[in-house]
Amino acid sequence: MDLALAQITDRVRAAAADHTPLRIRGGGTKDFHGRSLEGEVLDTRPFQGIVSYEPSELVVTARAGTPLAELEATLAAQGQYLPFEPPHFQRAGADGATVGGMVAAGLSGPARASVGAVRDFILGTTVLNGRAELLVFGGQVMKNVAGYDISRLMAGSWGTLGLLAEVSLKVLPVAPGEATLRFECNQADALRKLHAWGGQPLPLNASCWVQDAGVGTLYVRLRGAMAAVQAACKSMGGERMDNAAVAPDWTACRDQTLPWFAARPATHGLWRLSVPATAPVLSLPAAAQPLVEWHGALRWVQAPLSAGDALRDAARAVGGSAMLFVAPRDDEAAATGQFDLESKALEQIHARIKQSFDPAGVFNPGRLSLHW
Known about the structure:
This protein is of the alpha+beta class. It has two domains: about 5-175, 2-Layer Sandwich (Uridine Diphospho-n-acetylenolpyruvylglucosamine Reductase, domain 3), CATH 3.30.465.10; about 175-330. The chain is built from eleven helices and 17 strands. The chain has helices at about 5-20, 70-75, 100-105, 110-115, 150-155, 185-200, 225-235, 245-255, 260, 310-315, 345-355, and strands at about 20-25, 40-45, 50-55, 60-65, 80, 120-130, 135-140, 165-170, 170-175, 175-185, 205-210, 215-225, 240, 270-275, 290-295, 300-305, 320-325. The strands form four sheets. Strands 13-10-12-11-15-16-14-17 form an eight-stranded antiparallel β-sheet, with helices on both faces. Strands 3-4-8-6-7 form a five-stranded antiparallel β-sheet. The two termini are about 30 Å apart. The model has no long low-confidence stretch (mean pLDDT about 90).
């Protein structure tokens, strides 16, 4: 066993024996999210490195502490990438996203609605559970699952079930054709356009509607074969933007560094509303317009904590949900809502899974639920 992994295993074994809470942490880029951060820090960064990479097979295996930027650079050198565009969230005090944190958070970027989420690209994982046992799930091919897919269960678990030691991911070649189209329109017109395009054979990859200085603007990114992208540009209209000039804006959208995010008042939190893509413009309590991604399925809203119930009601009214993603800056100690389960049955299932993987309850207590 690798020395770094052996030391981590010994630490987990000792923590389980004396019930010492451990806070699994990679680069710390997502410390802003979760109900609470408790326990002694268990740093995964010493256990890093790309274990194997087969460009011809579109498969890469990396250790949890591997910097996400390093993995993406390795893939880019072979003309490949992570299609779900995981956010890096370069924030003050953080050292850069890691592969383990990427999977544990389960967050995807602008292309998620078109290509799938993090969990859809996970082939296998090696997990250190709360008993200090190293468990291997899945493998390095798509058809390797018999029974429940434990590997994908780890996506979005936020380190509450175990420490991700290694992850095998499916990657894809970079599309030969790309274009970004710009349209000036209000939110309702943007949603109508996106709904109409969604029913056509167009190479839609990402979209973002935002209102800056009172002007509503829809950006649509196309990716695919050159001929398909060119044909879509002609049929969809709009203003075609320079790819090199607009690329940093898509990265800023992914990492929430666009001016819209930066302008959030200190008294307001950032709310994440997940709704059906066909949902109309929502009746929101906040005065500011939302930022809309994922072809209408993701709506970011800036609002105070007092608007929480109204935002949840608005999302539920169209079959969606709302959660506080980032707490107000003047109330950073406030709990950040996540997985507010309304079903007692689901809550019991979550508790049983947690008990199976981490019976002593040492991993990231309180991050997802006040009961853990």
